[in-house]
Design brief:
- This protein is an alpha+beta fold and about 425 residues long.
- Helices cover about 40% and strands about 15% of the residues.
- It has 16 helices and 15 strands.
- It has helices at about 10-20, 25-35, 65-80, 90-105, 115-120, 125-135, 140, 145-150, 185-195, 205-210, 215-225, 235-245, 305-310, 335, 345, 365-375; strands spanning about 40, 45, 55, 60, 85, 125, 180, 250-255, 260-265, 295-300, 315-325, 330, 380-385, 390-395, 405-410.
- The strands form five sheets. A five-stranded mixed beta sheet has the order 8-12-13-14-10.
- The longest helix has 17 residues, at about 65-80.
Length: about 425
Amino acid sequence: MICSNCKEYEVILDFENYIIKKNPQLYEELNSIIEQYFMESDGCQECDGCGSTIAKGEPVANSENGILNSILNIIAKEVMNTIKCCSQCGQGEDISGMYASIKSIFSDPEDDPIAIFNSINTATELGDLLSDFLGNNKDSWEPYYHELVKKIECPRCDNGGGIDWSSHIDNGEFDMYTEVYTQSDIDQFNHQFYGDALAEISFEISKIAEKFTIDELVTLKRKYVSDKLFLSRESEFAKLYELIKESAIVYLLGVNRLLFRARGNDGTPCYSTSQMWSAPSNKVSQGRYNDVGEGYLYLSNNEEVIKKEVLIQSGIYNIGVFKVKNPLVLLPVDFLFGYEYKEFISDEVAANSRDDKFKEQYIITNIVSAIAKAIGYNGIVYMSTKDKFSVNYTLFQYDKNIDLECFKTYESY
């Protein structure tokens, strides 16, 4: 059995982290895994995996191996999309074959043919390639590296185990030190060895960077400060509105996903499920994705991070656990803004300014949230600024107990 408190559940969170940053379209794969392996508990019971109390209706899974295998298959496919050849085929075979020539030419005792070859060999070891995809989150992913590399094969010659291992039984298996060549590796070798001009490095440009300069976003912030009431008349606002609307980027938060909210409690009984929803509008200050008076619901995909997001001076945390009952359409802002413009969505407010009525750091995110709401999104999904491996959600359009249900609360320290 697997519940949200089990160590094995973390692979789902890490997979969501990957999706939000790199490929929001993979939400269908994640939702399919949840739908296939998780079912609602028919009564209160103890998790036989971690000993946590499972509430009636709480989604739990009975197959760790099935979930893990499905996720590793998807990651393996993503990794294979970047591999052009291995050391046994194509240009990789040509490069590897140079070692024999180097060894025969540089045969004096003081020569080091291995070092000479390594100086021109531009191959990437699979372990390094995996780190690019998995964000160097070794604590969660390293236990699965061996299984993951077994699923990777060379797309050019089929060397390696592959996802369908039975059809590649005679092709051997890759390991963490297997050398493969991406297009960048090949270009780098051709430049070093043959003198070919290096192709201009092509970074994936975010949707915002395609249409906006940094100066334009700074201007939008300035106009927000000077005349917020009529901001929608400004050309920069209209341009951002059309960009978000036309890009149609969607992250669908599927049924039976578990989300967490934290509140501080100074000693009263643990809050009930009805007390874990968003605060009344008259008690709401400006937040990252809400303006003053907008009672939006801030959630996270794990308990430990939501406690980092909600700072309390004393007392204990009360945690509310929410379950998605109908799919929610969210805007993935990290994918929209990309690395280049990350500062506009992840600026932190200084500790001595957290009680300020107006927070300039939240201007762009407030504008994006307002546009997303007007277009029809249910909320925003974004990487936590407190923990780079966790995902947060801000929901502003949903029906209580129809689209989303808070089904249990508990105390946490």
